[in-house]
Write a structure and sequence with these properties.
3 helices; globular; alpha/beta; Rossmann fold; 6-stranded mixed β-sheet
Length: 117
């Protein structure tokens, strides 16, 4: 699975995901600051990437007929990059992650919610 990190995802988390072997493109590295959520999704679809974000606005796409390759919303109570990496990377390596493609996934401290159409 390939990922596109929204601009609110820390550089440290992007680096940790890459060190763990994941293919992650970072919006910030491409100097695409301030682009709309729709444009983020367009880039992700074009490149077949799942968006990783902290932005709850991406949940609005659940009720809209907009194409996406998957959205992962990170909602941990401790949002430090180290905590997120420690909890998120094992999840990405689990069998459950096979269900993330083309779904909206909300990952929090005690729950992983997978929403499909």
């Amino acid at each position: 699975m390939k990922f596109l990190a929204d601009e609110n995802v820390s550089r440290t988390l992007v680096i940790q995901l890459r060190k763990a072997g994941f293919d992650v493109k970072d919006i910030k590295e491409k100097q695409l600051y301030g682009i709309s959520d729709e444009d983020v999704l367009k880039i992700a679809v074009k490149e077949r990437r799942t968006v990783i974000t902290h932005d709850k606005d991406f949940l609005d796409f659940f009720n809209k007929p907009i194409l996406h390759s998957g959205i992962i919303l990170l909602r941990f109570s401790n949002q430090t990059p180290q905590n997120i990496a420690q909890r998120f990377i094992p999840l990405l390596r689990s069998k459950m992650s096979r269900k993330f493609r083309n779904a909206i996934v909300i990952v929090s401290d005690n729950r992983v919610e997978i929403i499909t159409h």
